[in-house]
């Protein structure tokens, strides 16, 4: 029988996905509060969807990529400032690809104890499946979905 170790229960590393949407920002705030209370490390992930730029005219694709990068930099700034104010150890990652695949990859790389995402607001996701549902079905970590 193993002994209970005081102070070692609870998540050590939390991953939260943000994309600038209202629900993802709520998820980020929830994750920051949880990380602060649990003294966890917070990994904030922004996934740039490279496929969103495919098929655009070269000039339009460049403008879209720049706008996407500016959003990521704004989110990075918010994470750094918010974490410093709250006393949370947070790291921001800007990655490119499929949101599900990238969140899974990052969560596995950092040995996440939990993943937090915002609920999808797209009606079609009720039928096709949202990012949150796919993460829950993966069954690798507890997943918290913030409305």
From TrEMBL:
Signal peptide residues are none
Q: Fetch the InterPro entries from UniProt.
A: Rossmann-like_a/b/a_fold (IPR014729), UspA (IPR006016)
| Classification via CDD domains | USP-like
Output the superkingdom of the source species.
Bacteria
What are the UspA domain coordinates in residue numbering?
A: 13-147
List, alphabetically, the Pfam families matched.
Answer: Usp (PF00582)
What are the coiled-coil residue ranges? none
Q: Which PANTHER family match?
A: STRESS RESPONSE PROTEIN NHAX (PTHR46268), UNIVERSAL STRESS PROTEIN UP12 (PTHR46268:SF6)
Which family does the record claim for this protein? Belongs to the universal stress protein A family.
Q: What is this protein identified as?
A: Universal stress protein
Specify the species. Phytohabitans kaempferiae
